[in-house]
Amino acid sequence: MKQAVYGLLLYLFLLLPPVADLLESIMIVHMHMQMPLLVAAGFLMGRFLQNKFPLFFEKWNHNGVPGIVLFVIIWSYWMIPRAMDEALTFQTVEWFKFFSLPFLAGVSLRDSWKKLTNAGKNSVLIYAAAMLLFMAFLYIGADEQICNNYLEIEQQTLGWGSLAIGVCIVIYLLQLLFIDQSEFR
Amino acid sequence: MSIHQRTLLSLVVIILFGGVLFYLSTDGFRAFTSESARTLDLMENNPPLPPVTLQDSEFRTFDLDEFSEDKYVFMTFMYTNCATVCPQMEMNMAEVYELIPPESIGKDIVFLSISFDPTRDDPETLAKYRTYYGSDGETWRMARAQDQEELDSLLHTLGVIVIPDEYGNFQHNAAFYLVGKTGRLLDVLDFTEIEEAAAAVNAVLAKGGE
What we know:
heterodimer, A: 185 residues, mainly alpha, 9 helices, 0% strand, B: 210 residues, alpha+beta, Glutaredoxin, 2 domains, two-stranded antiparallel ribbon, 7 helices
């Protein structure tokens, strides 16, 4: 239960307007720090919900597939350049961000990840790597503004950041292929 | 209901939710960036342009609606210090100008480049700048807004976003704007597609109407 409290504290901290403004003022921090932290807050708070409604998760997310699909949908949604722009321009979209990332993505990731088979986990990682590399290609290569609220140079920084994360996931996936995992169990 | 049916049901609900979310937030998969959303919105709503007083390279002061009375206006937004997109846009604008039937120019359609850097782009600067692109200063005028508030309102209506950077330059979006005879926005055109833009303008000229 302790971690649910930490999750709540993290969530409340991220909700503070000065904190939100600061994190959103830098494009790469907005996408690769604020958003993952919101997911992490939901991930931690998920424990509380799992304890509170064990039957619900068991009934509707038995094998973890529906939950992880929800996570992937929400995460992909926030990769749309327009979504990120509109979070800054429209209050409702900003609210949706603070709701969807922790409670739809974070909680369902918490409940689903352990239930997934190895193949399921790897599919999610392959998708994430492909998405990040595609975003990197898009943001580094574009010679026009993709997000109207940010400068082009910030857009390229974000592209390189996405590339770095994408490459890390690819390295992880490759070592799964070439290194005997049973040695580490 | 068995556990498999329930899992399937929740999966279907989630995928439907995802579909609706993506559909609604991208205007039916048509606009994935706010720039394309803005253009789509402008073309669907044809907003009227707010009044704005301009001063051109010949020191003439005029109202936009007076200059454009009963004519179409082909418009761009730029600043003369720009080293990136503006020279290319103005160069392309010159090519579009060449592709319009000469008898229509000045009579049915006028060209206008508006600077969003009015402090530096005074008439002298604009007079020099216009010669680089072969603007005649009459049927294709280069002008600055007299009043910052009027300029902001015009930029806002057309969704032109201008962000000053720390080196005295601006980050901004760029497009060709075609304004109708009654002062409403008709079309937003890709400034890199010269022939396409000219064809769209010529089609409007041939058809007439507002």
